[in-house]
Amino acid sequence: MKKSDLAVVAAKPTNKAGRPVAEPVEPRARTKGNARQHRTRRAQDRESVTQALERVRLRLNAVRPGLTETGMLESFMQGAGNPDKLREAYRRAIPIGRLGKPGDISGAVVFFLNDDGEFNTGQVLSVSGGLTMHG
Question: φ and ψ at 64, to 5 degrees?
Answer without folding.
Answer: -110, 100
